[in-house]
Amino acid sequence: MSNLVRSELLKIRTTSTWWWLAIGAFLSIALAFAFNAWLASETLSGGGEEFGYTGDAASAPAQAANLYTSGQYLGLMFVMLIGILMVTNEFFHQTATTTFLATPRRTSVIVSKLIAASLLGFAFWLVTTIIDLAAGATFLSLNDYGTLLGEWEVQRALLLNLMAYAIWTVLGVGIGTLITNQLGAVITASVLYLIGTQVVGLLFLLLANVLDNMAVIKWQVVWPAAASQVMITPGENEMLPAWWVGALVLVGYAVVSGVVGILITRRRDVS
Amino acid sequence: MTDGRPSPTNDAQIVVSGLTKRYRNVLAVNNLSFTVEPGRVTGFLGPNGAGKTTTLRMLLNLVTPTAGGATIGGQRYPELADPLRHVGAVLEASSAHKGRTGINHLRVICAAAGLPRERADQALELVGLTPAAKRKFKGYSLGMKQRLGIAAAMLGDPRVLILDEPANGLDPEGIRWMRGFLKGLATEGRTVLVSSHLLSEMQLLADDVVIIAAGQLVRQGPVEQVIGSMAQGVRVRVRTPQADALTAALKDGPATVDSDGQGALLIGGVDAPTVGRAALAAGVELHELTTERPDLERVFLELTAGKAGIR
């Protein structure tokens, strides 16, 4: 199995795709950090209500958590795309034949892709977090808040961010096995991630109005991207489920897509 | 050929038995059985759409058979402990990531198969591709892609080689290289199964042939034997200024006389000495007397007549 994981990581390293996605992730960190830094300085100087930040959310630790996870929104999409490409590339470039000749036990191939994907998700998180920590700690210290790294709220955000990166890469692999057409999978997943979340939010808001029950809104957690948001958002209320509900939903999607992907791949004729 | 019983020491024999694949309404491969022996090059021939590629893919567990099965050295492909050390396959020339270099393509396979990394360099050297090792696959010519495919197949130094249309896209020099390479592998005692529709090339390359059409076995055996089995196809070409006299001299025997349309006669049913003797007895002057053996192409076209094409 370790041979297979090594082979999968080598596949990623020997093409330029991950490099482009890493550049994309880096740019999104830079943009998001600049925005979050501006937001933090506005909020912490008492202007948080303009942005809907009140109470706990306007506190220094909450803003620090936000800063230290800058770039997560697009970063998660990029690692998902890497996961997708790990599978669809095999069909797009017809390397599935070579891969399955070297390893006829296809379950092992998909499992090793899942492991390699988690490792890659971890690497993306690590690099993102190191950049965020350096920039965030500097920014907060300069503004006399200290690094705030001792706060559980901040540590929690970092750990859940790690979990999100690992799960979304795995989810990408699952999506790739379900939609093997490269362009189809990439477009579908990006649209569902970027636009789908807004549409789903709107639908649930409408539904809540129709049913005259705001608690309905919390059910949008069934949508993966919404679940991801719930997972990294502290606190819980009538409209917001607890973080672990989001985590469970997300893990559920990763497990189901992984298992279905394995079953489909085992039966598929490669020609 | 063997007596059909698998010998226990023979770990490089390919046995296909009752192999069947149905796609919706099309029976791509229909109850196909044949064996491929080590130490020989076996040509796997059939018209387009005969089911060659599907058969090879079922043999390698890439396509699941509807019925029947195939073994290599007595084991199904997925049962082989180290598949690449037993079997090397070249199925399509364009099966590498376009943005990956040739050497990295091979290293990825080495990693997956647990082969030492140096095998990638050795395999490239073997097919003469070392100068292009660090070039990306998209910059390879078709001939280079074929060579890279062969290098990938040779990584595990396998005893069984399976190649699907390896001569496609090769220039004459490439084809000659391939012929020498595959013959050399067979001489070393390896099993070489090559599908092709280039019949003249196959006649030069193959020791045995397996001919299929419409998913079914048409003929299997050593090339000479398969060609010889079409005995009625052996004809004698005669050039003479006295065609009518010779025709008359032969008309009482089993001979059939046709014109080849270019001033010569094609005589079937009798051998050259018989024709020569008849001509001598009749005092007919001969300018040419040659035995024309049918070649693989003619035998193939006769055997597969009416079974080719789109199903």
From TrEMBL, chain A:
Keywords, comma-separated and alphabetical: Membrane, Transmembrane, Transmembrane helix
Stretches that traverse the bilayer: 18-39, 73-93, 114-137, 157-179, 191-211, 242-264
Keyword Magnesium: no
Species the sequence originates in: Micromonospora sediminimaris
Keyword Membrane: yes
The name this protein goes by in its record: ABC-2 family transporter protein
From TrEMBL, chain B:
Assigned protein family: Belongs to the ABC transporter superfamily.
Residue span(s) of domain ABC transporter: 14-239
Top-level taxon of origin: Bacteria
Organism lineage: Bacteria, Bacillati, Actinomycetota, Actinomycetes, Micromonosporales
Protein's UniProt keywords contain Nucleotide-binding: yes
Organism: Micromonospora sediminimaris
Keywords: ATP-binding, Nucleotide-binding, Transport
Gene3D superfamilies documented for this protein: P-loop containing nucleotide triphosphate hydrolases (3.40.50.300)
GO molecular function, one term: ATP hydrolysis activity
PANTHER family membership: ABC TRANSPORTER, ATP-BINDING PROTEIN (PTHR43335:SF4)
Family annotation (Pfam families): ABC_tran (PF00005)
Protein name: ABC transporter ATP-binding protein
